[in-house]
Design a protein that fits this description.
68% helix, 8 helices, mainly alpha, 297 residues
Length: 297
């Protein structure tokens, strides 16, 4: 027998002997993995509900100048568009405020034009009344009828202060609060400023001066008026009827001094009429300009 065959027989003999000496497994005490009551089978599967996360593979390579340029361009475009939108919104709000002020000013001008016409008509009556009183004094006051006429004219036309008559609510806001900058059209803004300056000249310079003349005229008649006359007026609280009215003093010099004051006072009324008339024409021109430029009709 060859050497190789001896080795094979020896290995087979040894294997059979070792297998016969091993104890048989106790199958009654071993629980198989397929036992349905095994607690391992009752455990929830941790692999069934596992979420799978896919991670993007970022390119960590070096950026080119084109990528930097496009990133900068998109950022710049976003900021620029936001600025433009905000600027447009601001312009829209200011435009709406401008239109609001223009409409308010147009309404003020319409009221001023109507009031100017009535004030001119009334002031002309004042001028005629004072002129009638001057003529009466120049003719001489001798009869009771002339005295009655003197008192009637004095009561109606002497001592009437000239009051401001223009509505300046909108113009004051435009000029004093700095809202004139909202008026985008330069010709309109210049016309508003000129119109406001004419009103200020009338109210701050002319009217105070003319009211001063009016007070002086009233003071000049103080020594001529009998207080019984005022008590004889029906509207007087201490009404005392009287049959005749007399002057407290019929001195010619006092009457002439009063007539002189009346003439100065009357001239002030005449200047007031011409000034108000010019302002009224400016108001009409400004209203026409607003209606044309802003299509208010």
């Amino acid at each position: 027998m060859s050497e190789q065959n001896k080795i094979d027989n020896r290995s087979a003999h040894t294997g059979d002997k070792s297998n016969t000496n091993l104890p048989a497994p106790e199958t009654d005490n071993v629980q198989t993995a397929t036992n349905p009551e095994s607690p391992i089978d009752n455990l929830p599967s941790q692999t069934k509900n596992m979420e799978v996360h896919h991670h993007a593979h970022h390119d960590h390579g070096k950026k080119t100048w084109k990528k930097y340029f496009w990133e900068f361009f998109m950022l710049f475009l976003a900021v620029f568009c936001g600025s433009v939108a905000e600027l447009q919104l601001e312009h829209y709000i200011e435009y709406k405020r401008e239109i609001g002020y223009i409409k308010s000013l147009a309404n003020d001008l319409k009221g001023d034009i109507s009031l100017v016409e009535r004030r001119i008509s009334y002031t002309r009556k004042v001028v005629r009344g004072k002129d009638s009183l001057v003529q009466l004094i120049n003719r001489g006051i001798t009869t009771s009828n002339q005295v009655d006429t003197f008192y009637a004219l004095h009561k109606r036309w002497v001592g009437i202060n000239r009051l401001p008559l223009f509505s300046k609510a909108t113009i004051t806001q435009l000029l004093n609060a700095g809202y004139l900058r909202l008026i985008q059209k330069r010709n309109v803004a210049d016309s508003i400023t000129l119109y406001a300056s004419r009103i200020d000249y009338l109210e701050k310079q002319l009217l105070p001066q003319f009211n001063y003349y009016n007070e002086k005229t009233l003071d000049a008649s103080e020594s001529l008026i009998d207080t019984k006359y005022f008590r004889s007026l029906p509207e007087s609280e201490n009404y005392e009827p009287t049959t005749t009215n007399v002057l407290a003093n019929n001195d010619t010099r006092l009457l002439k001094a009063f007539a002189f004051r009346l003439e100065i006072d009357k001239e002030g009324d005449i200047v007031t009429i011409s000034t108000i008339d010019r302002i009224g024409k400016r108001a009409k021109n400004l209203l026409a300009l607003l209606e044309k430029e802003y299509d208010l009709k």
